[in-house]
Amino acid sequence: MAILVDRDTRVIVQGITGKSGILQTKSLIDYGTAVVAGVTPGKAGTSVEGVPVFNSVEDAVKQVSPNAAISFVPPLFAKDAAMEAMEAGIKLLVLTMEGIPKHDVLDILSYASGRGVRVLGPGTAGVISPGKCKLGAHPARMFTEGKVGVVSKSGALSYEVGKTLTDAGIGQSTVVALGGGPIWGTTQRDIVKLFNEDPETEIIVLLGEIGGGTEIAAAEYIAESVRKPVVSLIVGRAAPEGKSLGHAGAIIRGNKGTAASKMEALEKAGASLATSPAQVVELIRKLG
């Protein structure tokens, strides 16, 4: 099993002939991901790393039947690329780029909702189901196949915790990095729900940070519906009030968005709280 991606995932790379597209396409192929097509208007008939390039997603769908897309298109053209992919029938869309205009993000998410499309991002490092499929920037050496599902806003934090788990001999079912926000397609609650329903995932690790309320929404769902063990690490516990730090969503005002408020909600929901990646390992071992 796993969530979002597996061995049957067939990937199309939008913006494949750009610098990031070329680099990431090689990384995906090296991992074993089935990259079946790329799209760059005007470059049909060429190839990147042996992957055929098409002028449009529609042409690629007709020829090679992809079911997921990862986009490296510049932010100002991201909306057009996303709409094109969804109109062609792609059901999983990974938006790696930051800086997409907010109104464009809202248009993408509204259109996706009406068509049953899962959008990961924008600004996401992607998703990896170790041993099965990588769709994003996660360094392959940091992850190994197993039973722990990990969800994070931050790509870097998901890398760090994944490596810490792997070094401790604890494998992962899927590791998902959602992106920095402030507007997301897929949320922590969404991924926790998928992990809760995934028979391969036995323990859920929720990595959060200051700013926004998505961890609170996830905590509410955990309290209501999740019966699997949940371990949570919230970073930014010493962050000053009112100062924007890192991700666009990482800002706190009053008690809203503080690490303390999120930790309290998660603890009430039954999650085990860690204060470091090393302690995440300790808690998982106790639960196992």
Automatic annotation (TrEMBL):
Active site residues according to the UniProt entry: H247
Biological processes, Gene Ontology terms: tricarboxylic acid cycle
InterPro entries the UniProt entry points to: CoA-bd (IPR003781), CoA_lig_alpha (IPR005810), NAD(P)-bd_dom_sf (IPR036291), SUCC_ACL_C (IPR005811), Succinyl-CoA_synth-like (IPR016102)
Family: Belongs to the succinate/malate CoA ligase alpha subunit family.
One MF term in the entry's GO annotations: nucleotide binding
Domain (CoA-binding) ranges: 4-100
Alphabetic keyword roster: Ligase, Nucleotide-binding
Organism listed in the record: Aminivibrio pyruvatiphilus
Upper taxonomic lineage: Bacteria, Thermotogati, Synergistota, Synergistia, Synergistales
Any Gene Ontology CC annotation: succinate-CoA ligase complex (ADP-forming)
SMART domains referenced in this protein's UniProt entry, alphabetically: CoA_binding (SM00881)
Protein name (Swiss-Prot/TrEMBL): Succinyl-CoA synthetase alpha subunit
